[in-house]
Specification:
Inorganic Pyrophosphatase; 3 strands; alpha+beta; three-stranded antiparallel beta sheet
Length: about 110
């Protein structure tokens, strides 16, 4: 995976769309971020700034509320990314089947993360 994953933030929206997990990534080739290997390596103040952003960014939309959860570690972030890839692959397979009026072809694949 080209980007390091120090961790992710669960930010369930209290709207019609449900939970909306966020993943915090840093460039893997940037020496300034070499020390960031897990969420606990991110300075607490920066984590609080990011958390605050996600607590208030939907306040601009009438009727929207966000409830933040605790930070999760890198392993949880990687598991969430893998779950998203699987959902995308399943959705892509259904879309292809719908377009062709049958089952998805053997060449159908999910997207790769960059």
């Amino acid at each position: 995976m080209p980007d390091q994953l120090p961790g992710h933030r669960d930010v369930p929206d209290a709207d019609e769309k449900g939970a909306d997990d966020k993943v915090l990534c840093v460039p893997a080739t940037d020496p300034r971020h070499e020390h960031l290997r897990d969420i606990y390596h991110v300075p607490e103040f920066l984590r609080l700034e990011i958390q605050h952003f996600f607590q208030v960014y939907k306040a601009l939309e009438p009727g929207k509320v966000v409830h933040t959860e605790a930070w999760a570690d890198r392993r949880a972030a990687e598991a969430e990314i893998e779950a998203c890839r699987k959902r995308l692959a399943e959705t892509a397979g259904h879309s292809e089947a719908d377009e062709h009026g049958g089952a998805a072809g053997a060449g159908a694949t999910g997207a790769e993360a960059t």
